[in-house]
């Protein structure tokens, strides 16, 4: 017999929601876009609270690493988006179906 899942109250909007069964004990926020944003901010703040993470991105070695990457990737921010995704209707596997507008009554 399955265990019945209880609804939870979202930490952001305070609405009741059903948590994902794969994350029952850890899910604290519902799936609304605003609450997902709050969840991300909450996770980042918790990560930065840890002593070992406070200076994770600061220091001369990180400055040198970023400067070296920028030299190796000139114009990265100026590039356009990738053309890897095909057009939606350009190479369709099936023809589009045109609906028959007559209903067989002689109109």
Describe the structure.
It is built from two helices and two strands; from the N terminus they run E-E-H-H. With 107 residues, the protein is mainly alpha-helical. Helices cover 28% and strands 4% of the residues. A two-stranded antiparallel sheet has the order 1-2. The protein has helices at 33-49, 60-72; strands at 8-9, 16-17. The mean pLDDT is 82. The chain is flat. It starts with 7 loop residues before the first strand and ends in a 35-residue tail after the last helix. The chain has a domain at 8-74.
What are the main properties of this structure?
single chain, about 110 residues, mainly alpha, two-stranded antiparallel ribbon, flat
The Cα radius of gyration reads 26 Å
Contiguous runs where pLDDT drops below 50 for at least 5 residues:
none
**What strand line-up does the widest sheet have?**
1-2
Q: Give the termini distance in whole angstroms.
A: 59 Å
Share of helix, binned: 25-40%
Largest sheet: 2 strands, antiparallel
Shape: flat
SS-based class: mainly alpha
Secondary structure: number of strands: 2
User: Could you report the average pLDDT, rounded to the nearest whole number?
Assistant: 82
Strand content: under 5%
| Number of helices, where a helix is a run of at least 4 consecutive DSSP H or I residues | 2
- Succession of helices and strands: EEHH
């Amino acid at each position: 017999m399955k265990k019945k899942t209880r609804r939870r109250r979202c930490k952001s909007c305070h609405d009741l929601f059903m948590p994902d069964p794969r994350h029952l004990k850890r899910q604290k926020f519902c799936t609304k876009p605003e609450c997902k944003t709050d969840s991300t901010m909450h996770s980042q703040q918790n990560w930065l609270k840890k002593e070992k993470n406070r200076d994770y991105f600061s220091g001369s070695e990180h400055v040198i690493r970023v400067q070296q990457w920028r030299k190796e990737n000139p114009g990265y921010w100026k590039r356009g988006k990738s053309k890897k995704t095909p057009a939606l209707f350009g190479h369709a596997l099936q023809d589009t179906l045109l609906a028959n507008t007559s209903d067989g009554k002689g109109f």
